[in-house]
Amino acid sequence: MLAHWCAAANFRHAILLQLRMSGSRLYEMCQRTRRRIAHSKFLSSVFALLVFSILNWVVAAPTFAQDKDDEIVATLTGGRVIIHATQESITFIALDEPIEAGSVPPRVMSLDSRHVAILLGSSEWRMPADPNPIRMDQGYTRTGGPDPRYQSSYSGEAEADLEQMGVAFLEKLTPLAARLHHKLDFPADQPLFELVVIGFGPRDYGPEVWTVEYRMTQSNVTTRGDFWQTRVLRPRFVQIYPPEKHNPRKLVETCYPGLCKGPTLQQLLEGNEPGLEKLAKSDSKVAKAAAAISNGQAQKAVRQDADTFLRAAVPVIYPDQHFVMGNFEEEHGFQWIVPPNEPMERAKAIKDAKDDKNHPTEAPSLRRRTDPPQ
Q1: If DSSP codes are grouped into helix, strand and coil, which group holds residue 266?
Q2: How far apart are CA 17 and CA 227, in angstroms?
């Protein structure tokens, strides 16, 4: 009986031990399952976050690429322009006064058969993806009849032919400036681009000189952070020659950027600057021309004698400064007195000749003569 009871007790103990072991294994299995589930959820979260980041980058990438493609840099041209007008001709001098490293010199281009222009300000633009600069003096299309979209836009500031010219440059400048998306530290009253237009007015008006100023405005796009929209305003025309009737006729001088620094050539001549006085006394004809300019009767100076004086005066007053000098006559057109240093490539000259096949023969040509290759 005792043996039977001991056997039963051992059996129950074995059963309890087995149950305990089974429970322990079941608990351990549950714990492992929970850990696997938690690990799986963690991996799922990481995967979801990774997918979201990739999708967000894919969506944003075109915007970043577009912003990068829109980057553009304007090269500013600084300079001083001196103009002497007689009754039948205009002589101009354009001095290079660089604003920054890599600035291009003032360039001269023909507008039509009666006007030429000197380009100042943002006369050249560059994009990182394109090694060739965009030049404002290239690709200019001479306009035909008045553009009805811009009629009466300038309140009679200039004749219709000059207004058409102003519109042509505005349409070329607008898409370039629209690529400027960063805030510019640019004075509000300083033109982004400026033309000094030299020529002859209609109906025997005689010599005329205008400045055409293109200012800009910027607005911040708040939804895109530090992103700015740049817009070019309609050009502002200012006639700087001829003066009012009965006023003295003197040399005309204009500069970019802002007002001219230091005395003008006219002021130095009137003040008997020693270097200029010495030049004037070197020849009787030159002395007579210099005296006419100094006395406010520049229109009466003989053009050739005045050109001789001005050609020699510029290196004296502005030493070590590069300059170009040209003369424009109403009957005979344009000719260089001091041509640009950079010769025009033959290929470009041929292209311009083709572009100008309908250009009037009496129109001025700004092409520098180049000898054909041997």
Answers
A1: helix
A2: 76
Percent of the chain with pLDDT over 90: 52
At 86-105, the pLDDT tens digits run: 989 999 999 999 998 888 99
Nearest to 96 by CA among 120, 115, 126: 120
Residue extents of the structural domains in the chain = 73-261+322-355
Residue 368 and residue 107: Cα distance in Å, rounded? 13
Q: Supply 266's token pair.
A: 């006219």
Nearest-CA neighbor of 211 among 199, 196, 223, 200? 196
pTM across the whole model: 0.72
In contact, 211 and 254? CB cutoff 8 Å: yes
- Comparing C-alpha atoms, which of 292, 305, 220 is closest to residue 251? 292
Top mean pLDDT of 27-36, 83-92, 146-155 is at 83-92
Asked if residues 338 and 304 have their Cβ atoms less than 8 Å apart, the reply is no
Tokens found for residue 191: 């033109």
Tell me which residue has tokens 């690990």: 39
Cα(104)–Cα(121) distance, integer angstroms: 10
Contact in structure between 111 and 100 (CB atoms under 8 Å): no
User: Where do the H-state alpha helices sit in the chain?
Assistant: 2-69, 160-177, 265-270, 274-280, 284-294, 303-317, 346-355
Identify the band that residue 33 occupies on the pLDDT scale cut at 50, 70 and 90.
low
Q: Please name the amino acid found at residue 9.
A: A
Contacts of 80 (CB under 8 A, 6+ apart): 94, 95, 97, 253, 254, 255, 260, 318
Task: Say how far apart CA 7 and CA 234 lie, in whole Å.
Answer: 113
Q: Report the C-alpha gap between 261 and 80 in whole angstroms.
A: 10
Q: Torsion-angle region of residue 171: left (phi > 0), alpha (psi -120 to 50) or beta?
A: alpha
Residue 345, Cβ density class (10 Å: 0-12 exposed, 13-18 middle, ≥19 buried): exposed
Are 125 and 176 in contact by the 8 Å Cβ rule? The answer is yes
